[in-house]
Amino acid sequence: xxxxxxxxxxxxxxxxSYGQLGLTAFPFTIHxxxxxxxxxxxxxxxxxxxxxxxxxxPAGIGVSNIVQVKGMYERFGRGEHSxxxxxxxxxxxxxxxxxxxxxxxxxxQILLEDRLRRIGRLAGEEHYISGVYNYRLSQGLRLGVGxxxxxxxxxxxxxxxxxxxxxxxxxxxxxxVYENSFKLNNRHIxxxxxxxxxxxxxAGLEYHTNRSTDPLPTILKxxxxxxxxxxxxxxxxxxxxxxxMTNVSKLLSRKELRISGSDTSFVALPPFRQLIESxxxxxxxxxxxxxxxxxxxxxWYHVGIEVTFLSALSLRFGFENAAExxxxxxxxxxxxGIDLYYINFDYAYxxxxxxxxxxxxxxxxxxxxxIRGRIPLNGxxxxxxxxxxx
Length: 390
Hints:
14-stranded antiparallel beta barrel
């Protein structure tokens, strides 16, 4: 009887035994709340100056002698979910510091492609507090670290929807960004960049049930960028810049089935072991048959293009091609940016590619916006396009 039970679990519940995003703890930590990054297909791990949501890359924050304050709020799904974020960052000398607070209000689970996989809990709130530090080793190289505190109150099963199950934990981020520039001649500058980050690295938590541990959604991102800047000016403002960036990312999370006597549970692998074993192929039962997922089908690809005019007005285009099992997350995007130095507005429209994801009210489809303020502490007054209007 025990052998039959084991075989049944392996066949019918193996969806819960490996590393799909929907079965990790705190899966919404992958939700990028930086609207500029969203509009660029999340291909921004190699960019410096990405602020607010430090899960992009802890090495990427900071502008010299500038305090940056950012606020963001959005509703998603069919209006039953919302995310609010406040962040602040500051660079002094070679060091940059950042702090952000994010709150998720969840009114239900997000269904993925085959309706057997879900994201998050049925209802409740999740809170994320992130602290970041990075150090500029040289003119173009930064190294960063971050620590995140997470807690959740919410139900994970329809049968116990009135009960609140609390869970809390910590995760860690590391990252690096390197940027270099070349003068082609007096009127043309070429910039190259490279970046990587490992986010939400830590021990598993009892997120979905109190009988098993679920791995954190540890993400490895590697990317590069190429930017062209024209030194031609109009009324003292740079005429235009063009940037192309591309990233590859991979979920590094794994669970395994453990049997002890009559007890059966699914347990998150130790964090360092996940870094190694997450590169292997795995199988899961999709309700009809076992499906094998090789390495190439576990990778996410990201591409972004940004064109900036007069150092203030930006047009952005992006594409995110998610791993096969999370294909509902694939999207195309369009964005706008208005940078008046002291205040910055970013907008993004995301269009999910999978028709089924749209019909299920996929949570990132639609409009996203954010406002960021800058407070210069160096006593200098920067020129903005407003001077040409007023």
